[in-house]
Amino acid sequence: MIDNRFFGISLALLSFIILTSSITPSYAQSEPDFVSTPEAVILDLIDGNGFLWDINGNLVPGLNFDPPEGTQPTVCIVDGNNDAFDCAYFLRVGGTSYNSIPPDATEDGGREVVTDTVIMNNLQVNRKIFVPTDDAFARFLEILVNPTGSNIAVQVEIDSELGSNGGTLIISSSSGDTILDASDDYFTSDDGSDGGEDPSLAHVFSCDGASVEPTNIEQNFQNQATELDQIRYTFNVNVPANGRVIIMHFSSQNEDRVTAAASAQSLLSLQGSALSGLSSDEMSDIVNFDCSFRSVGGELLPINTSALLLAGAQTNAVWIMSALVVIGSIAFGVLYITTRNPNNMRNMKVILRDYLDR
Question: What is the set of domains in the chain, with CATH numbers?
Answer without folding.
Answer: 2-23+314-357 (no CATH), 34-291 (2.70.98)
